[in-house]
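To illustrate the input format used throughout this study, we show a single complete record. The first block contains the structure-token representation of the backbone; no residue identities are included at this stage. The design step must infer an amino acid for every position from geometry alone.
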């Protein structure tokens, strides 16, 4: 059977069918007109009326005749080239007994009740661990699930702005100008000391003075100051200007001139 060159009218869209039914725009021509590939009358659409395989073909002029479809409403069985002789394409039905091997197919109930095969799994395998199965088996048959409490907890979590970023926060973040890009952040982070190194440095008592040591030094300094002040207070410092006394009795002054009788 040769390849089809025709399509049925029901397969055409409405706009094309409107063109087919419009005798003012689609002009009937012999197929030789198409073969000549000329358009002396400036027709837009033509329909072949020549008996044969090109009958009812519709062409449009586009710098030459181009096939756009066919109105096969008038095609009869005799118009078909090389039709099938044994099985004509007409409506018919078969008895179930005519279908070979039908009794070997599974029934509808068997198909609906089948278990899909899972690669690497057998029918006796559990999809979770045996410990998990034992936990499920140990649950009471009267155990209940408080779905309302679960929903409330979920809602409470969703509304928690402490752990979530709100839509307003998202907008503010997106509108931040001059945001640092990742390259800049990585470059600046490279200038920072590692936390482990920093903590090891601050906790090194070999190169740092501890609080206990500074307290001892402060106490020693204060003790030295107190001792020095005490010694200075006990010193007898003479008056730089000696006092001169003239009398018969010995005075307490530094210089005494005694009067002789």
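Output of the design step:
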């Amino acid at each position: 059977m040769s390849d089809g060159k025709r399509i049925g009218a029901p397969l055409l869209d409405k706009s094309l069918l409107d063109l087919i039914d419009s005798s003012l725009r689609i002009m009937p021509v012999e197929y030789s007109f198409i073969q000549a590939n000329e358009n002396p009358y400036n027709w837009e659409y033509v329909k072949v009326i020549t008996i044969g395989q090109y009958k009812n073909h519709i062409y449009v002029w586009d710098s030459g005749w181009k096939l756009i479809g066919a109105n096969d409403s008038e095609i009869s069985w005799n118009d078909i080239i090389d039709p099938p002789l044994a099985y004509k394409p007409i409506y018919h039905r078969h008895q179930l007994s005519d279908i070979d091997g039908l009794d070997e197919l599974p029934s509808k109930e068997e198909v609906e009740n089948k278990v899909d095969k899972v690669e690497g799994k057998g029918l006796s395998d559990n999809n979770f661990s045996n410990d998990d199965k034992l936990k499920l088996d140990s649950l009471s048959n009267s155990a209940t699930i408080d779905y309302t409490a679960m929903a409330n907890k979920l809602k409470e979590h969703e509304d928690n702005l402490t752990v979530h970023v709100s839509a307003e926060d998202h907008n503010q973040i997106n509108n931040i100008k001059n945001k640092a890009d990742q390259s800049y952040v990585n470059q600046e982070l490279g200038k920072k000391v590692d936390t482990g190194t920093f903590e090891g440095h601050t906790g090194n008592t070999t190169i740092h003075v501890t609080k206990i040591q500074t307290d001892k030094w402060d106490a020693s300094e204060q003790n030295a100051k107190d001792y020095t002040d005490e010694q200075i207070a006990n010193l007898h410092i003479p008056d730089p200007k000696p006092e001169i006394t003239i009398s018969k009795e010995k005075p307490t002054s530094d210089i005494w001139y005694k009067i002789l009788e």
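Structural context for interpreting the output: The radius of gyration is 58 Å. Strands lie at 26-29, 45-48, 57-61, 65-70, 244-247, 255-258.
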